[in-house]
Amino acid sequence: MNKTPEKSQIKNLPIGIFDSGVGGLTVYRALHNRLPNEHFIYLGDTARVPYGTKSLATVERYAIENSQFLASHGIKMLVVACNTASALALPKIREKIGLDVVGVIGPGARKAVAVTSPNSKIAVIATEATVQSDAYRVSIKEASETAEVIQTACPLFVSLAEENWAKEPETFSIAKKYLDKIIEFQPEALVLGCTHYPILREVIQQTVGARVKLIDSGEACAEEVAQLLDWKELANPHKVAGERRLCDDLDHFYVTDAAERFARVAERFLGAKPAKLEAVELDELKKD
Amino acid sequence: MNKTPEKSQIKNLPIGIFDSGVGGLTVYRALHNRLPNEHFIYLGDTARVPYGTKSLATVERYAIENSQFLASHGIKMLVVACNTASALALPKIREKIGLDVVGVIGPGARKAVAVTSPNSKIAVIATEATVQSDAYRVSIKEASETAEVIQTACPLFVSLAEENWAKEPETFSIAKKYLDKIIEFQPEALVLGCTHYPILREVIQQTVGARVKLIDSGEACAEEVAQLLDWKELANPHKVAGERRLCDDLDHFYVTDAAERFARVAERFLGAKPAKLEAVELDELKKD
User: Fold this and answer.
1) Is the pTM of this model over 0.90?
2) What are the tens digits of pLDDT across the range B61-109?
3) Gap from A159 CA to chain B (nearest CA, Å)
4) Which residue of A has its CA nearest to B20?
5) Cβ-count burial of B17 within 10 angstroms (0-12 exposed, 13-18 middle, 19+ buried)?
6) Left (φ > 0), alpha (ψ -120 to 50) or beta: where does A209 sit?
7) Residues lower than pLDDT 50 in chain B
8) B131 in reach of chain A (CB within 8 A)
9) Residue among B49, B53, B168, B176 with most chain A CBs within 10 A, to mutate
10) How many degrees, rounded to 5, is the angle at CA A136 between CA A135 and CA A138?
11) Which residues contact B234 (CB under 8 A, 6 or more apart)?
12) Which of B103, B106, B129, B272 is an S-S bond match for B86, by CB 3.0 to 4.6 Å?
């Protein structure tokens, strides 16, 4: 990226998104729907997925490599779609790349506080690593000291989403088991703190009941990105001619391994395969 | 390892085992139970798990790095506990290290043929990657041209095993769904072609019925390793004093990341945490 680019040039640049794998496609979908004039570059680190079971040092290193890869392609802003990387690596990423970086945890937490009453009860479901990091609780407490927070890990939800079992009775039964304590807690809002969980949104809503507000962290993130583009006057002024579709050829997808599987799951999640999909090797992977 | 070691010295060396993560602990358990005088070095590549969704080139590279790590510690034989690596990378591993290498697929396939009648029907359950590789079908056909083979992927079984949901009704219900076609096929034997599946052995046996012979590839592998030690006169002649326990301090465990989680799952799978557990960095991971 040019060191002193004109603002008018920067506006035309795409927004970078990275995730540990396919889950971030739900965040891409939210961004794409909210910002139809923007172009996106998505990197799914499928060679090293999942991040949720890895250590802080490893997640930081991977996140920085992903961010540098996207920055080197010329982007105007970076979205960290992966909850684990958002929980663990945002400070290091911001330190390493001179761009605005938006994660998913802050936006999800703020949205939950915004749509609930003071002293409200907020539940969070996420991967084991995200729950252990306590990042959602910290962010919610920053937005509302008096909010009461409960967190639960739902590890099977990731495989169930990738299997596309959003309507199977077993999924309802497993959801009931995982969400039992949350139902008892009677929260006003429930944050979907893992990128895979919006695929199971209906199951989760039915299980906790219609009065619980579901917060999709990806959608909350897309709203904050829209605000930031506005504040910084960086929104793309060129209206895309015709109708934009998810995964059309204005968006570019990269994966670090197994592109064919990525395309298959993308079709399950978004109803379309990426028009532009490339397998790449990050620096570390180039070694031999 | 010394280039011309005495056979008496070689006999005292441990057997190396590698897996993509925790699943191979069921193979370690089978080896440990079958060969109580042997010592083991186990490497779980937890930084890069799972292999089942990665490409051939990547799995080969990881498998060779793991094998070289174990060979550099002085082992007399190598067991590839990971079904995906056994399916994809055995020839390359054998080419790179001058040791006997035993995988899990050949032994599992041969055992299935050995315990069934001629022209028998044999079913295999495994990860998507192992099923796609067709390695079990090829190995079974090598042992018996007339055997009829059916293969099914059961992706949720891995998470269910790691969650320790071996007795939950949802697991039975999911097993019924995955194994429906196999039940219809009426096989004489069913091969557990993923290291995680023995954890769900009872669910699987109940679902397919008591007359179907379950073949644990890890146990079949342990039998062939015992034979090979015998043929090559490499069995450790020193009887271990007292009773050996799984994960005792004669066996050494290495992981490439998240040792704490590994210890936790080891306790779920084996009933004991490794006495000796170390996190290591393989060459590729040492870069920065």
Assistant:
1) no
2) 999 999 999 999 999 999 999 999 999 999 999 999 999 999 999 999 9
3) 6
4) A48
5) buried
6) left
7) 1-2, 285-288
8) no
9) B53
10) 65
11) B7, B10, B11, B76, B77, B228
12) B103
Q: What is the pLDDT of residues A68-104, one digit of tens each?
A: 999 999 999 999 999 999 999 999 999 999 999 999 9
pLDDT in tens, A23-80: 999 999 999 999 999 999 999 999 888 888 788 888 999 999 999 999 999 999 999 9
pLDDT digits (tens, 9 = 90+) for B57-68: 889 999 999 999
* Interatomic CA distance for residues B108 and B224, integer angstroms: 10
Domain B7-103+220-286 has CATH 3.40.50.1860: yes
Instruction: Flag if A258 and B55 touch (Cβ within 8 Å).
Output: yes
Searching chain B, which residue's CA lies closest to the CA of residue A52? B258
Residues in chain A with CB shorter than 8 Å from the CB of B169 are: 173
Best CATH choice for the domain B106-217 from the list 3.30.70.100, 3.40.1110.10, 3.40.50.2000, 3.40.50.1860:
3.40.50.1860
Quick check: B18 and B45 in contact, CB under 8 A? Answer: yes
Please identify which residue in the block is written with the tokens 């146990």. B219
> Residue A152 pairs with which residues in a beta bridge?
A125
> Encoding tokens for residue A249?
């050829």
Query: In chain B, whose CA is at the least distance from the CA of A48?
Result: B48
B 2-41: CB under 8 A from A:
none
Cβ burial, residue A83 (10 Å; 0-12/13-18/19+): buried
Tell whether A159 lies on the interface with B, counting CB pairs under 8 A. yes
Of 3.40.50.2000, 3.40.50.1860, 3.40.50.2020, 3.20.20.70, which CATH number belongs to A106-218?
3.40.50.1860
Are the folds of A7-103+220-286 and A106-218 the same? yes
**What is the domain partition of chain A in residue ranges?**
7-103+220-286, 106-218
